Structures are given as C-alpha cells and as structure tokens.
Amino acid sequence: MKKLKRVIAILFAMSMLFVTVACSQTPEAPAEPPANDGVGDVVEEPPADVPEASPFAGTTITLMASQDWVQDVEIEVLAPKFTEETGITVDFQIIPSEQYPNLLMTRLNTGEVTDIFMSQGGRADIVTLLDVERHAVDLSGEEWASRLDPLAAYEVSVDGRLFGQPLFDISSVWAIAYNKAIFAELELEVPTTFDEFMEVSQTILDAGITPIYQPVADGWHHVLWFPEIGPVIEQREPGTIARLNANEQTLAESETAALIIDQISEMVDRGFWGEFYMSNEFVDAARFFADGSYAMFLGNPGFLGDVADADPDFNIDDIGFFVIPLADNQILNINPVCPTRFISSNSDNIEAAKLYLEFLARPENLQILIDNVARFSTLPISGATARFPSAIQALYDRFTVHGTVLQSAVTYVNPQWMEIGSELVNVIQGQNDAVTMLENLDRNRASQADAAGDPNW
Questions:
Q1: 5-30, pLDDT tens digit by residue?
Q2: Gyration radius (Cα) of the chain, Å
Q3: From CA 74, how far away is CA 357, in angstroms rounded?
Q4: What are the tens digits of pLDDT across the range 362-386?
Q5: What distance in Å separates the CA atoms of residue 235 and residue 249, rounded to the nearest whole number?
Q6: What domains can be seen in the chain, in order of their start residue?
Q7: pTM of the shown model
Q8: Using CA atoms, how far apart are residues 359 and 61, in angstroms rounded to an integer?
Q9: Distance between the two ends of the chain, CA-based, in angstroms?
Q10: DSSP designation for 221
C-alpha cells in the first residue's frame, strides 16, 4: 500500500491536471479547473502533453465491469496517467457481481452497452452468450495481441480472430502441495506416474501419517481431481475436446475420463484420504497440513499464505508442488478463462478504447498492476516481470507443458460443478461406477445445451 501511495504521489506531482475518473455508482460532474493562485481568470487549455490536434482530447470512454474485476490501482493510478497522456477520461461503471451478468446481457441485446465491457472469457461462452462477432471489435491487429499467452488468446478468439483482452492472473493453478520435510524423512521422490503416486502415498500411510487431506463436506474441492487434469484426456485421446464441443462424442465414451474417476476411487479405497474425508472442511486444510497430520493437499498458490497464517513457525520453504499424476498426467493445468475486456462494436469511441487497451498492455503498466495487486503474480500479456513465490516458480520451471482445464475447454462442464461433486461421492461410496457418472454428466450437458439453444445439440 505504501508503494501504491508513492506511485500516486509521483504521478500527481508530474502533472498540473486535475483528473476525474468517474464511477457509475457515484457519478459526478467534471470538477472546475484549479484556481490560478487567485490572480486573473483561469483559461481552459488542453494539457501541455496532449497535441492540440489530437482528435481524442476531451473524449470520455465508458467501461463496465463486475465488482472486483477492475483493480484499485487501475482506477487510482493508471487511468489518470492515461488521461494525462491522451486527454481521454475513463468512466468506470462498477456493478455488484450478482447483478452484473443480467445487466450485461440486457445492455448487449439493446445495443446500449458501454464502450468497453468486461465478461469472463471462454471460447464457447463468448460465442453462445456474448455473440462477440456481432457485439465486439476484432482486436487481432493490436500490438499487444502478439504478446498474449496462447492459451488465454484461444479462449477469447473465434475462427482465429481475437475479440478480447484478458488482464487477470491465470497462473493460480491447483496442484498437489507436499511437505518436503516428510518426503525427505521417508526418502520419497516426487511421483511422475499414478503408480508412483500410489507407492508414495502407501509409504506415508505406513509411517502413520495420512497421505492426503481431502475436504468433501464443502461439496466443491474434491471435484478438482477430475476436471483440472482435462489436458491429459486430450493428450491421450487427441481431438476429444473438439468432439465434445461439437456434440460428436460424449464424456462417457472417453476411456481416460473413466480412468481418472476410477483412480480417484482407488485413492479413497486404499485409505489415502484418511478416515474423515467426508466431514473434512477446506477451512481446516492449512492447519492440519502445518501440524504434520497430512503430507499432501490439492492447493493453489494461496495455500502458502494459509499455512503461514495457521502456523507462523512453519517453514514455507518446506512446501513444494507437483501436478496431479492421475492417468500419468505431467501437464500443468491452466485455467486461462478470466475477466476480459471487450470493445463494443456499437461504440462511438472505438479508437479511443483501443488506445486504452494498448496503454494497459504496455510493459511498464503491466508491472504496476503486478507490483500493486496482491492477487497478481503475473499477467497473460508478456513484458513485465512475474513475482511468483519460489514454490510456484519451481512448479512452472518443472512442468513446462501447459494445458487448459476441462471446465474451461469443454462447454457445459463448469456450470454443473456441484453436481459433479455429488456424482463423484456416489462413485467413491460404491453407489455408481465411473461410466454411469459420466453418462449423468452428459445428460446434464445436453439439458444445458438445449436451454442455451446450442445448434450442435
């Protein structure tokens, strides 16, 4: 926060402008120019660093976003800096998250959307929900498009044309956190296959430690074991993702998907989730990991901070990460779908809006975002320096092949997350088998596709 304040102070000290960045929740009229030391009348002139011939000086572009999608540093630092440079003001319209999806769709359908609107990406959703080919501007020719992470670009593109600018951290992967001290004491290596993973887990269990802390009571966390390693399904059965999205194949027809579910069930049958997995809760994961009751946990980078909070004496350097090795997976699972900026095709300020996206994508401005937003370790546009915790940097260094998680790659999977959790419990408890579970998910996908009017169903 101190660093952010210093940045703001420097920016304002460099300028004699009074910059107004409006917010739709508290709209205000432009402020009067500052008094000229009480001598004479104030003459309104363009800022000194904006060419008089600039066609954009005095323009206001509007940006609509769900709550928490636009960071404070963008509103307080970057937007004023952009105004100083171009004379263009940015009017932020921040909408409560529960109201945003319906409001966005209403405005898109009536043609009254803001110059820039934000939405989650997702290759299927930007077509079926946003209809970006009609409602958004093709951004393929922008300079920053060439620096966009390929996985992130794929999720906001249609037929090779880029329609959005993802500007959020997509590096927060779910991987298996393990206690290095326990592994070292038992002389264990990081497993690279499912069989090795089972051997490691059995050794830990034989030492009187529960191998994996798995909370099922919350209903969502245990689901991660299946869709997060969707990339290995595509690796072992090439073309599966495209066939699923085109309704040319079902999940139940994927041998790898069934294998993953069977292997999850095997972990439980062999006692590797412990005795209390059904009543375990996510909130207790860091505490039990820190006290050594469990050796592993399926966590994300935030888990490091959770463990430090649970036990300040725990050495965070004793936490390592490796990918989920079910189905012998060695692909780092990335979820490249994130809050994304689109420029409305109905905007009267398309070129000014493009300038703002170009400004945000400059390396120095990406760095300001990374350095001042706690949740950002990196961004999907290259040019700035990432600030990964050492354990996460090691994970990225070790696993250089990346793939998109199933819930983002395949349509109508993510909306039934909790249903997947219930289905998986039924398999674990012997009430269903893997194929039956997948058949139920296929029926749910078909129902959602029908409700969406998906032409492939």
A1: 444 444 444 443 333 333 334 333 33
A2: 25
A3: 12
A4: 999 999 999 999 889 999 999 999 9
A5: 16
A6: 2-170+337-387 (3.40.190.10), 175-334+412-452 (3.40.190.10)
A7: 0.76
A8: 14
A9: 51
A10: G
